[in-house]
Design goal:
The complex is a heterodimer of chains A (454) and B (259). By secondary structure, chain A is α/β, with parallel strands linked by helices. Chain A has eleven helices and 20 strands. Chain A has a domain of 281 residues. Chain A is 25% helix and 37% strand. Chain A has a ten-stranded mixed beta sheet with strand order 2-1-5-7-9-11-13-15-17-20. In chain A, strands 3, 4, 6, 8, 10, 12, 14, 16, 18 and 19 form a ten-stranded mixed beta sheet that branches. The longest helix of chain A is centred in the last third of the chain and has 17 residues. Chain A is globular, with a radius of gyration of 22 Å. The longest helix of chain B has 16 residues. Chain B contains eight helices and ten strands. In chain B, helix 3 packs parallel to helix 5. Chain B is an alpha/beta fold and 259 residues long. In chain B, the strands form two sheets. Chain B has a six-stranded mixed beta sheet, with helices on both faces. In chain B, strands 2-1-4-5 form a four-stranded antiparallel beta sheet. Chain B folds into two domains: 191 residues, Rossmann fold, CATH 3.40.50.300; 55 residues, no CATH class. The chains are: A alpha/beta (454), B alpha/beta (259). Chains A and B meet through helix 9 and helix 10 of A and helix 2 and helix 3 of B.
């Protein structure tokens, strides 16, 4: 048997099983054509594809994937051959639900991008911001209009070798957002982007750059309509916070409950820079997210706040890192999650302090509230410290609602459901306190109401 | 007509251990009763059982409130009928502010009465809460603190009375509300209760010590021993207890089984 023929048969078998997504060079070339890639991004795709080919699909044998089983994902169903290159557009020209178009952080927004099934349906940026040189555009357009800027940043924090799904997202990216706030520009009005789909798969890349001394508040939403068919999202997020820059970055994930969601994200914070990074993980069937905070410059600060509430058979896995590379840095992580039905959560966090990163102040806490006896929360904190003058602490808890609390509340005339709801609200309050935007808080509160419904 | 809580031959066990062995007591709206007795005699057990704590099993007897058998009702249903328990050890509810807690309680009650009720308006609630807190000399910032979380003993008891004042029950059981309070705190708490006392409120003051009864004047005093009420009388019974201690109760009624 010739080598080519055996490879073809091998491919056929794998496709039949749907256990892997096999991409050929021609698939990538076709995609580049369909999406009108410039020469540079076509090359980038090809590089990502090579990295993709070189890596096996992760399995339960891989340390980072030990608690998250993706064997049931039928790649050939979420990315059928016939649709490759046009997967996002497989959605029926859906209308993005109105709730996503509402500003979440302020009545006046500086700009908004809404992408539905890979097509841009809205893009605004106010004149003042544009005059100051702010770039706020969809990623594929940016690769053509500002190839230099994009090339200097994309793939630099999350290279394709980071993981199979990072490479997949880079090779197949069909949407994304590119934000750049030039040095010294303080953007008062927040920016808001929405990636929405009612199709099979989304592959997105997000790049946020806040240059030296600049300031930005950015809310990014990733969402899809709940469908019977399985959906997929794979994406990368790369965040650059320059020296003395400030960024508040809210990511809200409300993918449909049949969606497999893979995300590789990293933020790098420069000297005296400050990042306030907030995650609302609400949707998806399964999430595997790598969320890394790299404190690069002296005195850099980063705060990571996570909210999740799992129901049904949902499985959300957050893998976080707080990496201290220089002196006098502060990192503070709090992830809080409630679980009901047969759902499951995993949080695995690591604080790394590099040699010489003295005076590091690192904190991480993960708190879980189990609302049924069939849920399971794995909470695994970790410290890896190679400097001697540091203060790093962690906490991880998994608890239940207490019967004595319930009795106390009910003795005041509160119905059982109201009392439980109040206790869950109380559980999440410390996270809500860290979210300085009422619109975002309300969205999460609505989630609690929805998920607490009997 | 005044509401009445009527307890007849109530027997209660906790984890299969008999604690109450037949308690009879009638409390009417407008009356103040004191229930005294040594530690372990079953006073708090009665309080919890009346409120419907799931761990307290009523094995015999009957409790009616306004003529309705309440033993079949859940704690929230009993509360909505007008029964209230001020806890000896109120639990801390982290993340839930005093204001949020009380508003939820009020709204949950209103919703139970009328499923279409939209709840008390924020403005109305705020002025209600401000008024009640002022009457108890509570600083305004307490409204924004997490319920009982990091409260001192005195603050916890005052918060219990604040709930009593806000929810306006017909019958309130005060379970050792005086315990752990210094004399100043005790005066404030007792003063708060006295403001509420009147024809619309019946009170059962459960206490180990006679001290609180100097500030809250009972109409009737009952003594509990080994799970039964063994003596009942007027206010003078409390004075007798103070002078003679619980020893004479033990001598007169002890059978060497319990305590």
């Amino acid at each position: 048997m010739t080598k080519a023929k055996s490879a073809a048969i091998g491919k056929q078998e794998a496709r039949d099983a749907g256990a892997d997504l096999l991409l050929e060079k021609a698939d990538i070339q076709r995609l580049s054509q369909v999406l009108h890639d410039g020469e540079w991004y076509a090359d980038e795709r090809m590089r990502a594809w090579r990295a993709y080919r070189a890596m096996p699909m992760p399995t339960l044998e891989d340390e980072a994937w030990r608690r998250t089983d993706i064997r049931a994902l039928r790649w050939n169903e979420v990315v059928p051959d016939t649709l490759l290159g046009n997967v996002s557009r497989s959605g029926s020209n859906g209308r993005v639900p109105a709730r996503f178009k509402k500003p979440l952080v302020s009545r006046k927004q500086g700009g908004q991008i809404i992408v539905a099934n890979g097509q841009i349906v809205e893009r605004t940026l106010d004149d003042e911001a544009a005059e100051q040189g702010v770039l706020f555009t969809d990623l594929l357009a940016a690769t053509r209009t500002h190839p230099g800027q994009v090339a200097r940043h994309i793939g630099k924090l999350v290279p394709s070798r980071e993981g199979k799904h990072a490479a997949m997202a880079a090779a197949l990216a069909d949407q994304g957002v590119f934000v750049l706030v030039p040095a010294g520009v303080v953007l008062k009005r927040p920016l808001h982007s929405v990636l929405w789909s009612n199709g099979l798969a989304q592959f997105s890349r997000v790049v946020v750059i806040v240059e030296q001394g600049a300031s930005l508040t950015f809310v990014h939403e990733l969402c899809s309509r709940a469908m019977k068919k399985e959906q997929l999202h794979a994406g990368t997020v790369e965040v650059f916070v320059g020296d003395g820059a400030e960024l508040t970055f809210v990511e809200l994930q409300t993918l449909g409950d049949s969606c497999w969601h893979f995300s590789h994200e990293r933020a790098r914070v420069g000297v005296e820079g400050n990042l306030d990074w907030i995650f609302g993980s609400v949707g998806s069937k399964l999430t595997k997210a790598f969320l890394d905070l790299d404190l690069a410059g002296r005195g850099a600060r980063g705060r990571m706040s996570g909210f999740y509430f799992t129901a049904g058979k949902q499985h959300l896995d957050h893998d976080t890192q707080q990496n201290h590379f220089a002196e006098g840095q502060t990192s503070d992580l709090l992830f809080k999650g409630a679980l009901r039905d047969q759902s499951r959560s995993v949080w695995q966090g690591m604080i790394n302090v590099a040699p010489g990163a003295q005076k590091a102040d690192g904190f991480q806490a993960n708190r879980n509230l189990l609302l049924s006896s069939e849920t399971r929360a794995d909470s695994i904190p970790g410290l890896e410290i190679q400097a001697d003058d540091v203060r790093c602490t962690h906490a991880a808890t998994v608890g239940r609602l207490e019967d004595e609390h319930l009795f106390y509340l009910m003795s005041r005339g509160m119905a059982y459901d109201d009392a439980r709801k109040l206790m869950v609200d109380g559980f999440f309050d410390p996270i809500m306190q860290r979210i300085p935007f009422e619109g975002v808080r309300n969205r999460l509160k609505d989630t609690v109401i929805e998920k607490m419904a009997p | 007509m005044a509401s009445m809580l009527e307890i007849q031959n109530v027997q209660v066990s906790i984890a299969d251990k008999d604690i109450l062995r037949g308690v009879d007591l009638k409390i009417k709206q407008g009356e103040i009763h004191a229930l005294m007795g040594p530690n372990g005699s079953g006073k708090s057990t009665l309080a919890y059982a009346l409120m419907g704590h799931p761990g307290y099993k009523v094995t015999a007897g009957q409790v009616t409130f306004k003529g309705i058998d309440v033993l079949e009702l859940s704690p929230d249903e009993r509360a909505r009928m007008g029964l209230f328990l001020a806890f000896q050890y109120p639990v801390a509810i982290p993340g839930v502010t005093v204001a949020n807690f009380l508003r939820t309680a009020i709204n949950s009650r209103r919703k139970a009465e009328d499923p279409k009720d939209r709840g008390i308006s924020i403005r109305k609630f705020r002025s209600l809460l401000r008024e009640k807190m002022a009457s108890l000399d509570m600083p305004e910032d307490v409204a924004g603190r997490y319920l009982n979380d990091g409260f001192s003993g005195g603050e916890k008891k005052r918060a219990e009375i604040l709930q009593l004042a806000t929810l306006e029950p017909d019958i309130a059981i005060l379970d050792e509300t005086d315990s752990g309070l210094d004399i100043d705190a005790l005066k404030i708490v007792a003063g708060g209760v006295n403001q509420l006392v009147g024809p619309d409120l019946g009170v059962l003051v459960i206490t180990h010590y006679q001290r609180v009864l100097r500030y809250i004047q009972p109409d009737r005093v009952h003594v509990m021993f080994e799970g039964r009420i063994v003596e009942s009388g007027g206010a003078d019974l409390a004075h007798q207890l103070e002078e003679r201690g619980y020893e004479w109760v033990r001598a007169a009624h002890g059978n060497g089984v319990g305590a």
